[in-house]
Design goal:
Blueprint: H1 8-33, H2 37-92, E1 98-108, H3 124-136, E2 141-144, E3 147-148, E4 155-158, E5 161-164, E6 167-169, E7 173-178, H4 181-189, H5 192-198, E8 202-213
Antiparallel strand pairs: 1-7, 1-8, 2-3, 2-7, 4-5, 5-6
Transmembrane segments: 6-23
Coiled coil: 40-67
Keywords: Coiled coil, Membrane, Transmembrane, Transmembrane helix
Length: 231
């Protein structure tokens, strides 16, 4: 008996039907395994919430970054202001060199009296009165023979020698003062300098465009005085 041969068309139709049946079965399985419609809505809502939370966190991060940058800038500004205040206080305390227009005074003992008598020699009180005259005339900084005059400066006699800032100074005495040159010179010439000349002391006053004052080189220690706390 001869085998029955199927027509070519029938074979093609059978293959197509088999393919469609396979696809239908696969789709049916996916539909069975797919989450229900409510679950899809829930997942979609959670996704939206998570997206919103992420956006909020990103905005908060940006805000915090901006605040940190502002704080860093503010810290630098505060640090610069503090350093400037420290430098200003050191300047007014005489702890740094200073310069500016002013006058230079050269004061010496009367000629011929140095070896014969000390009665008319320059004494500590003469320098003290001269410095007071300069301060009253508006001097903003003073030095005597390289010694910066501050609120802690002492001027006293040690035997026949004058001591300033624990250092012995010798004539001729060079006094440098920063301030208005015309005002300082006029005040001195019409005041204590005229008295010195009457006593035969040698004294000159010259105006200077730039006077350089050395820094106070002594250690500053406070053992008893303390700043008053604000009430």
């Amino acid at each position: 008996m001869k085998p029955v041969k199927l027509p070519y068309t029938l074979m093609v139709v059978s293959l197509i039907l088999g393919f469609l049946l396979t696809v239908q079965i696969r789709v049916s399985r996916e539909m069975v395994n797919a989450p229900p419609l409510e679950r899809s809505f829930e997942l979609t809502a959670r996704l939206k919430n998570l997206t919103a939370e992420i956006d909020g966190l990103m905005q908060e991060k940006t805000s915090l970054t901006q605040k940190i940058n502002l704080l860093e800038k503010g810290g630098k500004v505060a640090e610069e202001a503090l350093l400037a205040e420290i430098d200003k206080n050191r300047f007014w305390a005489g702890a740094t060199e200073a310069h500016g227009p002013g006058v230079k005074i050269i004061l010496n003992n009367p000629p011929g009296f140095g070896t014969k008598s000390e009665l008319f020699n320059v004494r500590d009180e003469d320098l003290f009165n001269l410095l007071n005259e300069l301060k009253a005339a508006g001097a903003e900084g003073i030095a005597v023979n390289g010694q910066r005059v501050t609120a802690l400066t002492e001027i006293r006699m040690a035997g026949s020698k004058i001591v300033i800032n624990t250092k012995v100074v010798y004539p001729p005495y060079e006094i440098l003062a920063v301030g208005n040159p015309d005002q300082l010179k006029t005040s001195l010439e019409n005041g204590i300098v005229a008295t010195f000349r009457e006593w035969q002391m040698e004294v000159t006053v010259t105006k200077e465009n730039n006077v350089i004052l050395p820094a106070y080189d002594q250690a500053i220690e406070f053992n008893y005085v303390k700043p008053q706390e604000a009430k």
